[in-house]
User: What shape does this take?
Amino acid sequence: MGRYRPPQKPGSKYITLEGFQRLNAELSYLWKNKRPQVTQAVREAAAQGDRSENAEYIYGKKQLREIDYRVRFLRKRLDNITVVDTLPSDTKRVFFGAWVELENQHGEILRYRIVGPDEIDPQRSFISMDSPVAQALMKKSVNDIIVVSTPEGGNEFRVAAVYYDAKKDHDE
Assistant: This one.
């Protein structure tokens, strides 16, 4: 019997248009470029003879399994996802796709964009709408106070700005 893994709560089924295009491009690359290259490499390695000790063949088959797994995941995910490409009716409040600037107790400004779970990117400050920070931010507006629980205790933030236009973002 294998290790027990408790069922995970499925991630939200929302994605920005940019995120959808990125996942679609990844699927296309894997299926049309990467997989045929690896398949050819496996075919050439198999032609060399004994497959049981052929490292190139074994590694190529492993790569194919990983590519096929990712392709299946992407196809299933893209079929069941909702692309959000319109602004909410109230752009002064925080909803999916919003850029939010938060001020902490020390006066430091933290910027985040609320995106779907498939688009998380800490380097670009993209956080999942399922994260505790994003959950606390939903439907808030400028000057609202949020409290986010962390292992060290509750952190308090003030919503300093809410916008939906990335061009307003002068730091990128």
Observations:
- Residues 74 and 149 are 33 Å apart (CA to CA).
- Strands lie at 14-16, 82-84, 99-103, 109-115, 126-128, 145-150, 153-163.
- The mean pLDDT is 89.
